Amino acid sequence: MTATPSTSTSTSTSTSTGAEPTSAVRRGGRPGHAPASRRRLRRLRRRAVSFAGLVWLRATFLVLRVVAPRAADRRALDVWCTLPPGARHHRLDARPRPGDVVRLPAPRGGGEVVAEVWGAGQADGAPVVYLVHGWGGWRGQLGAFVDPFLAAGHRVVAVDAPGHGDADAGFMGPHRGTVTEMIEALEEAVRAFGEPAGVVAHSLGTTVAMAVLRDGVPADRLVLLAPNPAFAELLDRFASVLWLGDRAKAHLRGALEDITGRPIDDFDVIPAGADGAMPDALVVHDRGDRETAHAVGAAVAQAWPNATLLTTEGLGHYRILADARVVEAAVAHVAR
Fold it and tell me: CB of 106 within 8 A of CB of 112?
């Protein structure tokens, strides 16, 4: 399915201190979509399945905490690393056309990640922009950025991390993933195609981009679309929802830090650029985002001295990726 840019928008950006904009990007109608009754039925079906799965997981952890604590620890890590069902589906495909697909080695597990490249005909030395999907996403979700960046004289590289899109499974096996593998996938692409003039990242991809730049990859500009909360906050929420208990929660944190080789607090976006070490950033977040609260994006823009906040309304967590005014603002930020 191709995401459709909004047809009725007005834009405003905040000051570099992250103050609220005086107006916002608003989303227009949705021509061509399924009738409202059918969409409601699909939502109800998904919610029923999700609720049944949650009840089963809670019951599982309640039993395992008592009879097999180590099994509860293993199960908690497995659930945390389980990708959402759509990670392999080409949903929200906004690519204008297929690019050149290149398979690159994944540092872990012996598989390959996928990079799709547009702009091979650009002049030698054309600046490269990387598009980075979030958890359970894939490269096609950011396809609306391709043609505008090409028109601005850039090459564009979009990456599928292990377990996502067309990449091979990760080191934990099918339907599993880790932020470490997502970071390594972007690093592998940078080694293949060169240092970025800009990085456009969505959701957990904002953590990925931040980590790669923090570890020494230089970039001129950064666009953060719906940045994700602190990992400690996500872990607390995960443990609370699944009734993990303190032991399993502590073990899960330790297991994640063993995989990443870092404290999980090192992956928090808000403090990462508070000292001005990150590139000039445009932070875009929708006020009605149900996946990551708008307050997170506002906090990033407030904490980073070189960040600007663009607030949207009516786009949610995913439609923000294909909104024409959001794309325009991102390209203008990177190309200036």
Answer: yes
pLDDT in tens, 231-286: 999 999 999 988 888 989 999 999 999 999 999 999 999 999 999 999 999 999 99
Residue 78 to residue 256: CA distance in whole angstroms: 11
Is the separation of the CB atoms in 197 and 122 below 8 Å? no
Output phi, psi for 79, to 5 deg.
-65, -45
Strands 196-202 and 128-132, by their bridges, are parallel
Among candidate residues 197, 201, 229, the one with its CA nearest the CA of residue 321: 201
d(CA 327, CA 142): 10
175-199 core/surface letters (b: 16 or more CB in 10 A; e: else): ebbbbbbbbbbbbbbbeebeebbbb
Work out the average pLDDT over 151-160: 96
- Which residues does 33 contact at the CB level (< 8 Å), separation at least 6? 39
Q: Are strands 25-26 and 112-118 parallel, antiparallel or unpaired?
A: unpaired
User: To which residue do tokens 């950033």 refer?
Assistant: 281
DSSP 80-124: HTBPPGGGGS--S---SS--EEEEEE-TTTT-EEEEEEE-TTSPT
Planar angle of CA 129, 135, 136, nearest 5 degrees: 105
